[in-house]
Amino acid sequence: MQAVVLAAGRGVRMGDLTNDSAKPMLKVNGKPILEYTLFNLPEEISEVIFVIGYKGDLIKSYFGDEWKGRKIKYVVQENLNGSAGALHQAKDFLEDKFLVLNGNDLYQRSDLEKFVNNEPSALLVKEIENPEKFGVVKTDDDGYLLEVIESGRPRDKNLNLVNIGAYLLNKKFFDYQLAKKSTEISEKEFGLPQTLATMAKDCKIKVEKAEFWQPLGYPEDISKAEKIISQFSSKLTQ
Asked: Where is the Nucleotidyl transferase domain (predicted)?
C-alpha cells in the first residue's frame, strides 16, 4: 500500500521558525516531524509519496529515495491550492487504495494500523473537548460522514469530532470535482474534507476515531509535542 504525505505548505503560523525550514522538517526532540510520521506508518505501507513545495529540497535531501526499507517518491505542488489540490499532484503515481496524512501532525501507529484495515473511503477523527479552532465532522448513527464544518463556521456546540488530516482513499476520489474551502482566507484552496463531504452524498465515507493526535500548527505546539513524546516514547518514537 502507498501513503501520500502532504508536506508542501509554508507554515506561516510558525512565524520565523520556517524562514529556513520546511514546516514538516522542524525538529521535535531532535528529529524532524516527518521522521515521526514515517516511523509510525503501518507495516502495510511499502511506498511513500511526499507532496512537497516550500523548502522541499530539504525533505528530499534528508530522506532520499528510500527510508528504512520504504521507497520514496516526490511530487511538487507548485500552486499551493489546498490539501485536495496537493493530492491531485500524486494522482498518476497512485494505486487503488492509499493512505493520506498531513505531514505537520503527529499520529500514533496503532491508530493508523487499525485505520488502514477499513475499506476506502474513510477519514480519521479525534474527539476533543474544545474543538472551536478546528474543523469538525458530523456523522449519522452508523458512523458515516454527513457533513464537514470548517473552523470559524457556525456549528452545533455538541459536535466534537475533529478532522485530523488522515484519510483512506482509492482512485474513485479523483472522479469528483474538487470542493473549495469556504472561508475568505482560503477560498482559493480545495480541501480534502470538503471534497469527501461531496462524495458522501452518493457513497459511504466511514469515520473512525483515533486515540491520539497532536497538531503542530503554532510554535507552542512543538514544546507540547516534545513533552508528549518524552512521556509516550514507546508509542511515538524509535
From this structure: 3-228
